[in-house]
Amino acid sequence: MLGKGVVGGGGGTKAPKPSFVSYVRPEEIHANEKEVTEKEVTLHLLPGEQLLCEASTVLKYVQEDSCQRGIYGKLVCTDFKIAFLGDDESALDNDEAQFKNKVIGENDITLHCVDQIYGVFDEKKKPLFGQLKKYPEKLIIHCKDLRVFHFGLRYTKEEEVKRIVSGIIHHTQAPKLLKRLFLFSYAAAAQNNTATDPKNHTVMFDTLKDWCWELERTKGNVKYKAVSVNEGYKVCVRLPAYFVVPISLPEEDVLRFQGHGIPIWCWSCHNGCALLKMSALPKEQDDGSLQIQKSFLDGIYKTIHRPPYEIVKTEDLSTNFLSLQDIQTAYSKFKQLFLIDNSTEFWDTDIKWFSLLENSSWLDIIRRCLKKAIEIAECLEAQNMNVLLLEENASDLCCLISSLVQVMMDPHCRTRVGFQSLVQKEWIMGGHCFLDRCNHLRQSDKEEVPVFLLFLDCVWQLVHQHPPAFDFTETYLTVLSDSLYLPIFSTFFFNSPHQKDINMHQRQLSLPLTQSKSSPKRGFFREETDHLIKNLLGKRISKLINSSDELQDNFREFYDSWHSKPTDYHGLLLPHIEGPEIKVWAQRYLRWIPEAQILGGGRVATMSKLLEMMEEVERLQEKIEERHHSQGALPAEGPSLLRSSARLSSLFPFALLQRHSSKPVLPTSGWKALGDEDDLAKREDEFVDLGDV
Q1: Helix, strand or coil for residue 182?
Q2: Nearest-5° angle of CA 498, CA 493, CA 168?
Q3: Could you count the other beta carbons within 10 Å of the beta carbon of residue 180?
Q4: In sequence order, which residues have a C-beta less than 8 Å from that of residue 458 and are 6 or more positions away?
Q5: How far is residue 180 from each of residues 38, 184, 502, measured CA to CA in Å?
Q6: Are 269 and 248 in contact (CB under 8 A)?
Q7: DSSP letter, residue 427
Q8: Torsion of CA 130, 131, 134, 140, to 10 degrees
Q9: What pLDDT sits at residue 65?
Q10: What are phi and psi for residue 98, nearest 5 degrees?
Q11: Which of 612, 621, 618, 619 is nearest to 636 (CA)?
């Protein structure tokens, strides 16, 4: 029987399987249109948000095989988001949701979060862009947070289809001007209603005092000084107004090449060694200019390299490490593993999942980043050497590696406030081009590279391997990655502090995410992925790592020595980087795929079950004590305060009560090609070990 607001039929997908019987004829849809419209959810607009276009009688499909089931509603497009408004009885009540977003709902997509748009024409899926001559009967939207939405338009009025499809394409794909971003409309409308969170003590590094405080905290003030030579951005718009340089460096040297070629301080180790970064000097052609640059760099080098008292090691990240193109290419392949249109596609892909994962090289890139950070930590900690990171603009890989080194070596950066301050110092003030790297203006796909997401993935590896060392969970990192595409925060929408300052009023916005119930104790979310998922993603990934890449002798000794001792969670922290230890961040990448979830599974469900049992034991003890002390009637049982563990998912809290697939663990689509049992045993790398289920 069909529930309210749920219909069968619809266009743009393959015909139902022979065993499926549809009890709703197309003409009945129009008869029910009025009833569906009356139950639509109200569209909630943020301050400054405006409705641009809308379409009624849109069918939001359920991603389950080709059953073509869905929910009726209205599809709208504002200058902030795409939203589906429908009567969905399967949605959770507010008191059921463990985690929700204050700004966007389950069926909302911010315009910046749209990755690709596809249309279905006569059962063929094609990418949509520009002006269309023919409009699709089904719209598919792939999001940057890896959600996939299917909207049926077969029974929507033709004029409404044209408006909504054209509007969505234009407002998500057309190049934009910075001032036209919703960020500015929201800032203007919400200016008087925004308050700073009094509990947020994140250091913003927008004053000289903040930098002096950081120098004092790390004991770096003996050899380094905070300078205000760029106050008002009169020297360089790429650098922050205030930053730190060696004490022996004359301030006029900062002026000489507009801040290029200057060793800028990142962090000081407990032994006095420092991590520095430097951008390249402008490229010159004539010999005279090159000689001037050489003499300048020689003088700069002597300020930080004074053997035997101070020795510096340089790491050229532009030539001897990853390229931005490597990162973008790897992630483009990697994300396709999770942009799944339906259950059939999931199981068809499952049989070759590990091969596709290996071909993406994403996990290997994570490993290389962690390895480079460990190498630098070894130089600072064991060899007592300064390390100077070199990069063309010192705003991409320098941000990534310097941040990882500090997370590994400085326990303050593993607290929530310390981590937020680290992001503010190394990424925001460090001039990472979020506007370009996230392609917020849609002006150049070539500039789009997920460098910050790579950093969060590397941090997740550390959190996953050493959860007690961190004051935050993987859920915090997942939320932070989602915030990249929420245009109500100025944090991730500019290329430099200068660009932000000249375009906005300085003000702090707290993240719009909360839990609808009080947070559990620290550590409750630790390792929220079930054992089966861990096996699926990590058990045989050792064959994906190039074991021939031998580690240097000093590095190997440092690495092995640290891992041979008990872990001090308040000191140096190194990750395991070999074989299956580098895993897929399941919570972020698999949270929207029901087939990859285990209802009632995972560490959170296990902990919840234990708490349920403890609560039951306490109630029984109270009954026994009451029976001993009173012959009267026993008091009525109060309601349990705990959630049933069977209702939790292995990817909690993002996948609570989502649809669960009834498909077997082993895909049936390829049974004929698998052969007998011996052949199946030979190909075990392609499947999950059933013994782990």
Answers
A1: helix
A2: 140
A3: 11
A4: 366, 369, 370, 373, 400, 404
A5: 34, 7, 15
A6: no
A7: I
A8: 30
A9: 53
A10: -80, -25
A11: 619
Place of tokens 């596709």: 356
CA nearest 644: which of 598, 605, 689? 605
pLDDT tens string 173-182: 999 999 999 9
Spatial CB neighbours of 398, under 8 Å, sequence gap ≥ 6: 277, 317, 389, 391, 430
Tokens of 42: 């109200």
How far does CA 313 lie from the centroid of its chain?
32
Using CA atoms, how far residue 142 sits from 88, 104, 115, 200, in Å, is 21, 17, 5, 34
The secondary element (H helix, E strand) that includes residue 612 is: helix 603-629
**For residue range 76-113, what is the model confidence (pLDDT) as tens digits?**
999 999 999 986 544 444 444 456 788 899 999 999 99
Q: Which two tokens stand for residue 353?
A: 């999942």
Provide the pLDDT for residue 631.
61
- Is the CB of residue 508 less than 8 Å from the CB of residue 200? yes
Alpha-carbon span 510 to 463, nearest angstrom: 23
Q: What are the DSSP E strand ranges found in 182-256?
A: 224-227, 243-246
- Could you identify the residue written with the tokens 């407002």? 171
Residue 531 amino acid letter: H
What are the tens digits of pLDDT across the range 473-485?
999 999 999 999 9
In 3D, which of 116, 120, 163, 98 has the Cα closest to residue 10?
120
How far is the C-alpha of 608 from the C-alpha of 517, rounded, in Å? 15
Longest C-alpha distance within the chain, in Å? 103
Position of tokens 């315009």?
111
Q: Which residue has the tokens 């400054």?
A: 48
The whole-number average pLDDT for the span 55-68 is: 78
What burial class does residue 416 get, using C-beta atoms within 10 Å of its C-beta: 0-12 exposed, 13-18 middle, 19+ buried? middle
Q: Among 300, 297, 209, which Cα is nearest to 246's?
A: 300
Q: Give dist(CA 369, CA 372) in Å, integer.
A: 5
CB 109, CB 140: distance < 8 Å:
no
Burial class (CB in 10 A: 0-12, 13-18, 19+), 684: exposed
Count Cβ atoms below 10 Å from residue 116 Cβ, excluding itself. 16
Tens of pLDDT, residues 202-215: 999 999 999 999 99
Its sign, for the CA torsion 21, 26, 30, 31, is negative
| 3-state SS, residue 627 | helix
pTM over the 0.85 mark = no
Distance CA 534, CA 539 (A): 7
